[in-house]
Amino acid sequence: MKDIVLCNDVIMPDLCFGTGITNIYSTGIKRKAKLAKNKIKVILNKDKKNALMNINLSKIVDVSMQHGCKCFDTSRAYGASELVLGNTLNKYPRESYFLVTKLCNTDQYNGSVREGLENSLKALKIDYVDLYLMHWPVEGRFIDSWKEMEKLYSEGKCKAIGVCNFNIHHLEELKSYATIMPMVNEIECHPLFTQNELREYCNNCGIQIMAYTSTARMDERLRKTCLVPIAQKYNKTLAQIILRWHQQIGNIPIVNSSNIEHMIANLDINDFSLTESEIEQIMGININSRLRYDPDNCDFKQL
Ligand SMILES: NC(=O)c1ccc[n+]([C@@H]2O[C@H](COP(=O)([O-])OP(=O)(O)OC[C@H]3O[C@@H](n4cnc5c(N)ncnc54)[C@H](OP(=O)(O)O)[C@@H]3O)[C@@H](O)[C@H]2O)c1
Question: What's the pLDDT score for residue 21?
Answer without folding.
Answer: 64
